């Protein structure tokens, strides 16, 4: 079942003694992963750089749809920016549910896919009513001629404090993040018009409020304050590490 929507891939409920697997760590493996698997070793089509393996991590060349592990061999599995690429999402997800007790999955949201579309992404993904919905981009005639990735993924996160606050106060704006236990609900290429409208029609005010419920001014101020504090801590930490 779904547990919650974390603020980031570092906001995870991983215990100190947990054995952690990452599926598709690529060029940016999670530092908490004990074992990292990747399907493509010499092909960077599906990632932004060469495979990287951190100290004390075991790396295996393996297909996420056919993982070489026993049932529940891991306490936790991390899957960051991979599901949108896979050919068979059912087999891919079922393998994660099989080999781990709990886990975290992150993908571009539907809005994120529109802002920075990638030809290597097969699926447009959005969480609707507690279900992770995947729609084949080919069925949607998904436009890929505009890509604002350099702006929203590189420049603004590095140089705009206002954007950093937005990322933290609305973490699922252009990213779908979900932490789960045992499994979570998902649907592939749904036919339900109440779900498809999020993918095929202009969003009405009602749809916006359903996906992003309006919060009180006090809640907004509290979240913005926490976000700003977190940003300050991150800046201080990065400068300290740089000096070392």
TrEMBL record:
<dbReference type="InterPro" id="IPR013216">
    <property type="entry name" value="Methyltransf_11"/>
</dbReference>
<protein>
    <submittedName>
        <fullName>Methyltransferase family protein</fullName>
    </submittedName>
</protein>
<feature type="domain" description="Methyltransferase type 11">
    <location>
        <begin position="53"/>
        <end position="103"/>
    </location>
</feature>
<keyword id="KW-0489">Methyltransferase</keyword>
<dbReference type="InterPro" id="IPR029063">
    <property type="entry name" value="SAM-dependent_MTases_sf"/>
</dbReference>
<dbReference type="GO" id="GO:0008757">
    <property type="term" value="F:S-adenosylmethionine-dependent methyltransferase activity"/>
</dbReference>
<keyword id="KW-0808">Transferase</keyword>
<dbReference type="Pfam" id="PF08241">
    <property type="entry name" value="Methyltransf_11"/>
</dbReference>
<dbReference type="GO" id="GO:0032259">
    <property type="term" value="P:methylation"/>
</dbReference>
